[in-house]
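User: Continuing from earlier, I have the next pair ready.

Assistant: Great, send them over.

User: Here they are, in order.

Assistant: Folding the first of the pair now:
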Amino acid sequence: MTPSPAEPGSGGGFVRRKRVWFHHCDPAGIVFYPQYLLLVNEVLQDWFETGLEVGYAGLFAERRVGIPTVRLECDFIAPSRLGDDLDITLTVARIGKSSFELRYECAGTEPDDVRVRIRAVLVTTSLDGHGTIPIPKDIRTAMERYT
């Protein structure tokens, strides 16, 4: 079951539940740390689709807008194991002219059971000119509901 996102503007963030599968784990049976980045990227894509109501594929293919990550910080607090369910919460920490900062918290099904915290800064770019562009107005407006 996937928890529903909190109401935009409620401060609760956008939440998705992810199961830890075999392909996420190293030989010790715990999540291999780069797999967390794949998991949070899935949450990012789902946030665009269902939280912001902005087609993720269309962002690139039709609108020619990129959103590369330019800064990433991760704090690994406790291990996650095969079969664990993780609630991954995405919150918007800051919205600038052409960049925005997201915070992710990966926790077990108990809120105090935090496994990983991630801070990511993304920038909007033109996929044609490859330079930085202002965050499109519709995306900025949708993001503001999550601050």
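And the other member of the pair:
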Amino acid sequence: MYANILVPVVVDEEAKTQTAIEAATAMADPGARITLLHVIETIPVYVSDYVPADYMITARESVAKRLEDLAADIPNGHAAIADGRAGPRITRWAEENGIDCIVIASHQPALSDILLGSVAGHVVRHAKSAVHVVR
């Protein structure tokens, strides 16, 4: 059982998110903190000229609202947003916030995942806490 659980969330993947939340809730100590984290990837410079100036502000507000709604349904649930590359940012956020377990959803691996690596794969390889992968 865990006291401080992190669930990385992609807000437009409801089924995977719900599965990860259910697993986290099942593994949580009574009174455990469960944090839903969404990482907003940086827009590449070569694309930024084509993106409206207020896009990132609007996207962050939308993600924050969705995370808060999801967290409200979880006992002692919290929402957080971070910026950067998803894999490294998730592991760094977990270290900075004393996470003792990361519950992350993953898709069925493909050949490209073996060559390039996925977010879940990065987290499994680099996290200093326990990691549970759900599919």
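Worth noting for the second one:
DSSP finds six helices and five strands in the chain. The two ends are 20 Å apart (CA to CA).
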